[in-house]
Specification:
With 203 residues, this protein is an alpha/beta fold. The protein has helices at residues 15-23, 44-51, 67-80, 97-102, 123-130, 165-188, and strands at residues 4-10, 31-38, 55-58, 85-88, 107-111, 134-141, 151-158, 192-195, 198-201. Helix 4 (97-102) links the parallel strand 4 and strand 5.
Length: 203
């Protein structure tokens, strides 16, 4: 089996990054993590990736005069690694439409809500304020609109009486790791593809 080469973009500790690295250790998993790139030199996930023997590169956005120059450097690193798929795992940078188009159908992100509900930030606060009894996470293809790409995998969790944003965030995080690994496997194996703005699934 020819495994897809995966690059992961992070900004912090990268708990979802670590989950994908673990998933890729399974012999029949259809993807391998070949590089981790952070936009911050002190991102804790870099050391975690290196400890797993994975190339880890810091490309701090503050070292560049413009967003375009920073993205060009990131793109060069992705191409140098021969990446097939890019996974955003807590990458706290808004990505330009030009960068998105380079990786259309090959870039994934995880968002802590059941999209299309509660896009953007502070999703747990939004859920509690709305009175919803169900929450969760979504892995989706990245498109030019924030959190607007078609879903690949979702997992729901209950909203419990007495929940706070912190307890709800913890419960969602507990299912994020498996959901992301499952979604990446679908894309890497060709069982989930993006076509005309929709996710198309096949056996």
């Amino acid at each position: 089996m020819q495994k897809k080469r995966v690059a992961i973009l992070i900004s912090g500790r990268g708990s979802n990054m670590s989950a994908l690295i673990e998933a890729a250790k399974v012999p029949n998993y259809p993807a391998e993590v070949v590089v981790v790139i952070a936009n911050k030199a002190d991102a804790a996930g870099l050391a975690a990736a290196r400890a797993e023997g994975i190339e880890a590169i810091a490309i701090p956005h503050r070292d560049f005069i413009s967003k375009a120059e920073h993205e060009a450097a990131v793109s060069a690193a992705l191409h140098a690694a021969n990446a097939d798929v890019v996974c955003l795992a807590g990458y706290m940078r808004l990505i330009s439409p030009e960068f998105v188009r380079q990786w259309e159908g090959r870039m994934l992100n995880i968002h802590p809500s059941l999209l299309p509900l509660f896009r953007g930030l502070h999703t747990h606060e939004q859920v509690l304020a709305s009175g919803m009894r169900v929450h969760g996470c979504t892995v989706h293809f990245v498109t030019e609109g924030m959190d607007e790409g078609p879903a690949i995998a979702q997992t729901a969790v209950a909203v419990k009486t007495g929940d706070t944003p912190a307890t709800l965030a913890e419960r969602v995080l507990s299912v994020e790791h498996e959901t992301y690994a499952r979604a990446l496997a679908l894309v890497a194996s060709g069982k989930a593809t993006m076509h005309e703005g929709r996710t198309v699934f096949s056996d």
